[in-house]
Amino acid sequence: MSEVDAETAPGREIWIEKYRPQTLDEIKGQDDIVERLGSYIDQRDLPHLLFSGRAGIGKTTAATAIAREVYGDDWRGNFLELNASDQRGIDVVRDRIKNFARSSFGGFDYRIIFLDEADSLTSDAQSALRRTMEQFSDNTRFILSCNYSSKIIDPIQSRCAVFRFSPLSDDAIAAQVDEIAAAEGIEVTDDGREALVYAAGGDMRRAINSLQAAATTGEVVDEEAVYMITSTARPEEIESMVTDAIAGDFSKARATLDTLLTDTGMAGGDIIDQLHRSVWEFDLSERDAVRLMERIGEVDYRITEGANEQVQLEALLASLAMND
Ligand SMILES: Nc1ncnc2c1ncn2[C@@H]1O[C@H](COP(=O)(O)OP(=O)(O)OP(=O)(O)O)[C@@H](O)[C@H]1O
Ligand SMILES: [Mg+2]
Fold first, then answer.
1. DSSP letter at 58?
2. How far is the CA of 210 from the centre of ligand 2 (A)?
3. Is the shortest distance between the CB of 202 and ligand 1 below 6 Å?
4. Which of 162, 172, 164 is nearest to 21 (CA)?
5. Is the Cβ atom of 206 under 6 angstroms away from ligand 1?
6. Residue 46 in contact with residue 54, Cβ under 8 Å?
7. Tens digits of residue pLDDT in 137-193
8. Burial grade of 283 (CB within 10 A; 0-12, 13-18, 19 or more)
9. Which pLDDT value is given to residue 50?
10. Global pTM value
11. Domains of the chain
12. Which pLDDT score, from 0 to 100, does residue 109 have?
């Protein structure tokens, strides 16, 4: 079982680590979660926790912030971070957990074991984990992190307080972008900030990485820089592609698609995601929106199954253009 070092080597200034919130209060958005977690810490009574939600929204950050708040500077000695997707399997996890739970304590009632990607464990492995959780429950608290809580077996869910992390709001992302830009002394234009928020789609890690990448390419982080760095289509491009197709101008829609795939370098799946996010923001009739939505579902599935992306997206535009 590998021990994942949450922080990168000092000196390598990766902003997602440099600006990772150290305390619960510094976490942007997730207000209800921060408040509930804070009250466990105030009452000095931490149950097992299960964090679920998409990538880059603060699950690992919340776990390390809890450890810092409970243990202060000693947190690293009392916090074990393991990744459940480690190929060596659940036996190795159990050995690591046993050794950690048995080693001597520095005056605290319990230690914290953070198990990332818990949903990658098979249900047999989860049953074994559940027994381990019970075996060490008097001096160990588990924080499990996963993308899909539905993949965690009920007996584990019922032993944990479950926290569902949501994608971060535009405001939360904009606030963090501004804070980092100010600390780094870089200029982010209003349209640049808007583009960062749009391209992030609720993922703070993506927003910060894009900001850092865009900041190394020029003096000012504007819309241009962000769309180039993130291989994201401008919302207007996606919209005109769709409205051209619906108006029957297939060639024009197809040309836009070509530009997105070749010049912007987008993957077909990313175009589908962007389409999906924007369907209800386009000025479409209900019928067209429904038609588009139905086709997005189909193409998404086919692309996931390995179909040719360009063929599938052109077929989507063609079916909009036919307007049957
Ligand atoms: N709510 C937040 N407030 C401020 N920064 C955040 C927040 N969420 C994420 N970040 C930033 O994004 C980085 C990645 O977040 P984190 O490691 O917590 O993601 P995660 O939810 O554990 O994702 P994954 O499922 O990929 O493990 C952090 O280092 C931090 O810089
Ligand atoms: Mg994580």
1. S
2. 18
3. no
4. 172
5. no
6. no
7. 888 999 999 999 999 999 999 999 999 999 999 999 999 999 999 999 999 999 999
8. exposed
9. 98
10. 0.86
11. 15-164 (3.40.50.300), 170-230 (1.10.8.60), 235-322 (1.20.272.10)
12. 84
